[in-house]
Specification:
Jelly Rolls; 3 helices; 239 residues
Length: 239
């Protein structure tokens, strides 16, 4: 009898050395396979990473693995330096001006298109009304430049045309900034410098639409508009 018991103990010890143990699972797939929650009541705290391993859960197979702490650092730096609100676009030909009922009187938006963006996510801009949609409330740095034709006209343009930025909120369009083209009357010559820009910071709310266009532009030549150049940029700088 004593011999049989010893043999059984030896057999069990051999199985234990190579077996996979499952808790709440009859088919373990790791040395220790726990199908359930894990509670640890006392966890010592360390203030430095050297000498320690960071553990992570693989959501694909539920295994716990060691994680290089540098990966956490890299991910944090990437998240801190990525500004998902950045968007810019540029038109070098085919400029048209669009009138919408919600725009303030005298304002017409430049027909920027998503395909003309130079940087930024396409989802921030819509070709339906040629506007940028504010992704989150805060303060945004914004710039808009427009050159009408060659940028110099041998006459003083009527209606004092210029550029403007319109914010549309809850279906109401508001001109938040504008600047007219510069003109000069000389003894023998009248000139309009028809190139100007706006660069400032503005406070917006999430969902606001921002449009870039011209004011007082009814007398501008369609041919010169077609050869005009326009560009804008916008990005969030503060909450």
């Amino acid at each position: 009898m004593k011999t049989r018991i010893c043999s059984l103990l030896l057999a069990l010890s051999g199985m234990t050395a190579f077996a996979q143990i499952g808790i709440n699972t009859p088919t373990p797939t790791a040395t220790l396979d726990v199908n359930g929650t894990l509670k640890v009541r006392d966890i010592p705290q360390t203030t430095t990473l050297p000498g320690y391993q960071v553990m992570a859960l693989n959501l694909g197979n539920a295994q716990v693995t060691r994680l290089d702490s540098q990966l956490l650092t890299d991910a944090a730096v990437t998240a801190a330096t990525t500004n998902t609100s950045v968007y810019a676009a540029r038109k070098t030909a085919g400029v048209n001006l669009l009138s919408l009922g919600l725009f303030p009187t005298g304002f017409r938006a430049v027909n920027f298109l998503t395909s003309e963006r130079t940087v930024g996510a396409a989802g921030l801009f819509t070709d339906t009304d040629n506007s940028y949609t504010i992704p989150s409330s805060g303060v945004y740095a914004t710039g808009f430049t427009f050159r009408y034709g060659s940028g110099l006209q041998a006459e003083i343009l009527s209606n004092s045309p210029g550029i403007g930025i319109v914010r549309t909120r809850a279906g109401v369009g508001t001109l938040i900034d504008s600047r007219t083209f510069s003109g000069a009357n000389l003894v023998l010559l009248s000139l309009t410098i028809s190139e100007t820009s706006l660069n400032s910071v503005y406070t917006f709310q999430a969902g606001d639409k921002v449009s870039f266009g011209l004011t007082g532009s009814n007398a501008l030549s369609a041919a010169l508009l077609g050869s005009s150049v326009a560009s804008f940029y916008i990005y969030k700088i503060s909450n």
